[in-house]
Amino acid sequence: MPQSQAYEFSYLDNIACNTEVNIQILTPTQPIRLRTRLVGVDPHVSIILALGSDKHWQQASDFIAQDQGVIIRIVKTDEPDANVIAFKTCIQKLINSSGRWLLVDYPKEIQKVALRQHSRIPINVESSLRAAPSEASENSTEAKPLAHGNLSDISIKGGAFVCKTNDTIEKEGNYLLQVKIMPDMETLSMPVTVKNAIGIEHDKAQLQYGFIINSPQSEAEIFVQKVILNHLLQQSE
């Protein structure tokens, strides 16, 4: 096992009890999202979660069954780096004797990144640039995109957008970066300012547009968290 992956498993094994956990149940139609807390970790065997009882859990009861595929997301916002962990697994079993617990299989692979690190994180996520609201003649979220491309890296400070060379994208121009998160089909929008344009050595028809994010850090963190998780979960498919 690579040293970095061994560290990530060790990190998971030592996450404190009662840490908030987000569960996404993979269904044929629309994903179901639930919140719970960590009860404990049995290394290499299972992850023990509290079995919820609110209306969301009740509505999802038909899908909370053995071998059901789920995505587990844990964000440690109380740490300086705000580490994000995501992995795919399956429900192992439900326990209602000594407590209401949901056991899921211990993951075979973990995706982990530090959300607040200033270095950019390499990703590959489809995205688009639209006119900024102040410059759009109509609602910017509905306006025709100026360019379709991919985010090639991201941080809470900024990132890089790669697309075909586009004369409408200007240095110091303000735009709206949009990303569609799968499988939720949620569209995220974030105001950005393009700072530079760099040629792609292996593809002369494309440019990499460096940008900064124009929003409070708390909003930037949420946006970047969702984008990174989307990338990580696509990578693990």
From TrEMBL:
It comes from the Bacteria. Residues 18-107 form the Type III secretion system flagellar brake protein YcgR PilZN domain. Coiled coil: none annotated. The keyword Nucleotide-binding applies. Pfam families: PilZNR. GO terms for molecular function: nucleotide binding. Keywords: Bacterial flagellum, c-di-GMP, Nucleotide-binding. The keyword ATP-binding does not apply. This is PilZ domain-containing protein.
